[in-house]
Design goal:
CATH superfamily of chain A: Fumarate reductase/succinate dehydrogenase, transmembrane subunit
Shape of chain A: elongated
Strand content of chain B: under 5%
Number of strands of chain B: 0
Order of helices and strands of chain B: HHHHH
Number of helices of chain A: 5
CATH architecture of chain B: Up-down Bundle
Structural class of chain A: mainly alpha
Structural class of chain B: mainly alpha
Strand content of chain A: under 5%
CATH architecture of chain A: Up-down Bundle
Largest interface: A-B, 35 and 31 residues
CATH class of chain B: Mainly Alpha
Distance between the termini of chain B: 67 Å
Oligomer: heterodimer
Shape of chain B: elongated
Order of helices and strands of chain A: HHHHH
Largest sheet of chain A: none
CATH topology of chain B: 3 helical TM bundles of succinate and fumarate reductases
Number of domains of chain A: 1
CATH superfamily of chain B: Fumarate reductase/succinate dehydrogenase, transmembrane subunit
Number of strands of chain A: 0
Radius of gyration of chain A: 21 Å
CATH class of chain A: Mainly Alpha
């Protein structure tokens, strides 16, 4: 298979570039892992924070989010979480939904929902952080 | 096998999920996916909680009351376990992606470890949440 029309002048990378079935899949794959790795420490921090806020009154939650470090970390956690969730759901759809249109609709709706929820939660955090 | 026409229509697939007893790593793998889906749905609750906090004490108290109700607590308990499981299994996947420990013995051992640790983590979080 490697010998077919291989005149020896093209590098192996040059021959396969742009021809792979995954096309830009490599970059997506890596981005998904990078975000997952980023989420590892963030979610541990988030879990500890949730425990500390478990019995919080409104004023406690507001005071907590008024601290810039908490607000910034939560914003990063939220954006990474929604990216990770949308991408993860996409992988599930690609594995189990075989109809092309149904798969496209499922992915589209999930991405739309993720963007909407991300925007709403980020807005809520910013509103509190900037003193609502 | 005299009924060839029937055999032609429905040829056995392997591994056939109805008769195939899933090994522990397979159970662990599909659990990772299920917890991921559950956590994706859970982002709705997280967004709702943040928006409630931003909208004021009344809405926040409602959210806290719903989450603190028996059904709310049960959902949060399930969420905590799903969270812990997905986090731990996710770390294992990142290690696998780095090319480390990709063999049957390691998969068997780590699957048991992830299951065990996820329950321990859930217990720690809930004891901490009620003690603090």
């Amino acid at each position: 298979m490697a010998s077919t029309s291989d005149n020896g002048f093209r590098t192996r990378l040059g021959r396969v570039r742009g021809l792979g079935s995954a096309k830009s899949g490599g970059a997506h794959w890596l981005a998904y892992r990078m975000v997952a790795a980023l989420l590892t420490p963030l979610t541990v921090w988030f879990l500890v924070s949730v425990v500390r806020l478990a019995k919080a009154e409104h004023a406690d939650a507001i005071a907590w989010l008024h601290q810039p470090v908490h607000a910034v970390l939560l914003l990063v956690t939220l954006i990474a979480t929604f990216h990770h969730a949308a991408y993860g759901m996409r992988e599930v759809y690609e594995d189990y939904i075989h109809g092309k249109l149904a798969r496209l609709v499922a992915i589209g709706l999930t991405n739309g929902a993720a963007i909407l929820l991300a925007a709403a939660s980020v807005f809520a955090v910013l509103k509190i952080a900037f003193g609502a | 096998m005299s009924e060839t026409s029937v055999a032609k229509k429905a040829r056995p697939l392997s591994p056939h999920l109805q008769v195939y007893r899933l090994p522990l790593p397979a159970v662990s793998s599909i659990t990772h996916r299920f917890t991921g889906i559950a956590l994706a749905v859970g982002t709705l609750v997280l967004t709702w909680w943040l928006v409630a906090a931003a909208s004021g004490p009344d809405d926040f108290d409602t959210a806290q009351r719903v989450l603190g109700s028996p059904i709310g607590l049960l959902c949060l308990l399930g969420w905590t376990w799903a969270f812990g499981y997905h986090l731990l299994k996710g770390i294992q996947h990142l290690i696998w992606d780095a090319g480390v420990g990709v063999n049957t013995a390691s998969a068997q051992r780590n699957s048991a470890l992830v299951f065990g640790a996820s329950f321990v983590l859930t217990a720690i979080v809930w004891i901490a949440a009620f003690a603090l």
